[in-house]
Amino acid sequence: MTDQEDNAVFTTTTVDWTEKDVGKRIEKRVTPNGTYFNEIVVQISCQICGSGFIGPAREAGGFIGGHECYHAWEFSRAMDAEAGMKE
Ligand SMILES: [Zn+2]
């Protein structure tokens, strides 16, 4: 990637996105599930465990949903243990 491309609104990165790509758009991203256009690259982290993610907004949604689901499971296990339902 050149300095000129660094200033562009679009990123040419297709995998392994970094902080340099955050806020830029991916012109076209082909996946087995469909083709995504003009998708923005975002950086987020999980508020519960602090795990981080940089990538397309669509995948960020999966990251958030996956962590919400996982941590809900963790909490329900902890509550079951507290209620004496431990094996
Ligand atoms: Zn998490």
How many strand units? Answer: 4
Q: What integer value in Å does the Rg equal?
A: 18 Å
**Distance separating the two termini:** 55 Å
Hetero compounds: zinc ion
| Residue windows where pLDDT falls under 50 for at least 5 positions | none
How much of the sequence is in beta strands?
25-35%
What oligomeric state do the depicted chains represent? single chain
Main beta sheet strand tally, sense and closure: 4 strands, mixed
User: Please, how many helices?
Assistant: 2
- Structural classification: alpha+beta
Give the H and E element order.
HEEEEH
Sheet with the most strands: spatial strand order: 1-2-3-4
What is the total number of structural domains?
1
Q: What is the element layout, followed by pairings?
A:
Elements: H1 3-6, E1 10-11, E2 25-31, E3 34-45, E4 52-56, H2 57-82
Parallel strand pairs: 1-2
Antiparallel strand pairs: 2-3, 3-4
Bound molecules: zinc ion (ZN).
Residues 46, 48-49, 51, 67, 71 line the site of zinc ion (ZN).
